[in-house]
Amino acid sequence: MALIVQKYGGTSVGSVERIQAVAEKVKAAKDRGNQVVVVVSAMSGQTNRLIALAHEINAEGDPREMDVLISTGEQVTIALLSMALQRIGCPARSYTGGQVHILTDSAHSKARIQDIDGARVQADLEAGRVVVVAGFQGVDQQGDITTLGRGGSDTTAVAMAAALKADECQIYTDVDGVYTTDPRIEPKARRLERITFEEMLEMASLGSKVLQIRAVEFAGKYNVPLRVLSSFEEGEGTLITFEEESMEQAKISGIAFNRDEAKLTILGVPDHPGVAYQILGPISDANIEVDMIVQNIAADTSTTDFTFTVHRNDYKKALGILQATAESLGAREALGDDTMVKISIVGVGMRSHAGIASQMFEALSSEGININMISTSEIKISVVVDEKYLELGVRTLHEAFSLDSEAAN
Ligand code: ASP
Ligand code: MG
């Protein structure tokens, strides 16, 4: 008998009919001889509605009260799903995060899970019940309700799977798996049968929002086999696994992108030790996250040009800071551009294939796409380009690395 944790997101439980459909799927899994724990999100839109209500009263609501409020969406869906299961003859019981001792730290709205006591859930499973657990929420040492950050139900599911040593954690969502790239940009994008945790983390941090990043990290750390699949269609979905030595890797598994890039440059900075710190120190003091960084020495070697990227939302603030820095350092000029995007190719296969970078640059140049910045890691190469090249860039790379052909998987 296998123990499976299934997680259904907000869209999957967005109406009474959908909750009933989820109940049928859960019952089917149980009837196949599995023990099943289900984690659910709030009905789609509900968490946003609750946040909007709070904002009508106080734009900066007390974090503790915010968590009391926004955790309620999930309490609705656990009860409704349990009722729907009972209705079709499947014994079930619902639990809030606190009731199954999902113990977290006290960081309201972004709490981290520290411990889960699986005893109560185990007892229910052994008694033949399906256990339905509220996603997104826990309690701290004081017994105060906490939430895990937007999209946090994924993390609840993975943490439950880890605590119960489940055989698989299945994340049901409105897409049928992880794709080689966003099908809205490249209709030839393909569902991947498997992807490694490392690749998935890169894809997620680059903006493929299939799974919450923390959930992937958690699953990787605790060896929880994770599968992403559709709640509306039958299918195998995508299995997120560890890299296998024997697995013949495609060079590249996917193309990720991020639309919200802004580039800032400070020109003609007198070059001496400590310059990078003097430029980026004030940026990080303002809590602005810097992504790519490039420094080049000018021909006369006495000055340097320094370029970095930030999120578009932080662009104006960062530019103001940089202009002040330019003045105090006696640099020539500070300027920027907030119409940039980042496109990345991701794949563990890069480790064993040479020449991937030049293949990427060749493909982009053949379409006349100018690269502004480049950064590389062991399993990823990213370029920053003008936003008008996003679609073209993604499609060009998708084709260049044969991601639309079956052979690539
Ligand atoms: N209901 C929460 C949210 O909307 C948690 C989740 O959906 O995973 O962020
Ligand atoms: Mg969600």
UniProtKB/TrEMBL annotation:
ATP binds at residues 7-10, 173-174, 179, 184, 209-210. GO terms for cellular component: cytosol. Its EC number is 2.7.2.4. SUPFAM superfamilies: ACT-like (SSF55021), Carbamate kinase-like (SSF53633). The keyword ATP-binding applies. Pathway: Amino-acid biosynthesis; L-threonine biosynthesis; L-threonine from L-aspartate: step 1/5; Amino-acid biosynthesis; L-lysine biosynthesis via DAP pathway; (S)-tetrahydrodipicolinate from L-aspartate: step 1/4; Amino-acid biosynthesis; L-methionine biosynthesis via de novo pathway; L-homoserine from L-aspartate: step 1/3. It catalyses: L-aspartate + ATP = 4-phospho-L-aspartate + ADP. Keywords: Amino-acid biosynthesis, ATP-binding, Kinase, Lysine biosynthesis, Nucleotide-binding, Transferase. Residues 264-346 form the ACT domain. GO terms for molecular function: aspartate kinase activity; ATP binding. It holds the Pfam family AA_kinase. Substrate binds at residues 47, 74. One of its GO terms (biological process) is homoserine biosynthetic process. InterPro entries: AceGlu_kinase-like_sf, ACT-like_dom_sf, ACT_Aspartokinase, ACT_dom, AKii-LysC-BS, Asp/Glu/Uridylate_kinase, Asp_kin_monofn, Asp_kinase. Coiled coil: none annotated. Belongs to the aspartokinase family. This is Aspartokinase. The gene is lysC.
